[in-house]
Amino acid sequence: MPQPWLSLAVILLATNLFAFALLGWDKRRAIRGGRRIPEARLIGLVYLGALPGLLLGMRTFRHKTVKRSFQWRLALATVIWLGALYGIAALSMGADPRGW
User: Fold this and answer.
1) What are the angstrom distances between the C-alpha of 60 and each of 8, 11, 24, 42, 73?
2) Which one of 15, 26, 42, 90 is least enclosed by Cβ atoms within 10 Å?
3) Which of 59, 83, 84 lies closest to 71 in space, CA to CA?
């Protein structure tokens, strides 16, 4: 039986590769004037753990690097995601949520 952490690592790797490819695809469509991927969908990938893939895609494809509104929303989503991870970790280690 596979370890749960191994399964989680595979899922996170796939999610990050998908986010990276999606940014490349969106950049290509932007250059060609095609239909774009909504920014909300790109930001939503942060909540699935795809922040590294998004950041690498932004840097590699030089996409969404100037648009400050996107960067602010990305930062906010990252803070929310990290807070949720902290809460889940604390609860899984037996922390009492009433003591927060």
Assistant:
1) 25, 22, 8, 16, 20
2) 90
3) 59
DSSP H/E element including 90: helix 68-92
CB atoms within 10 A of CB 100: 7
Amino acid letter, 26:
D
Nearest CA to 12 among 66, 81, 79?
A: 81
DSSP code of 91? H
* Tokens coding 8: 């989680």
Half-sphere exposure of 40 (CA within 13 A, CB side): 0
Amino acid at 42: L
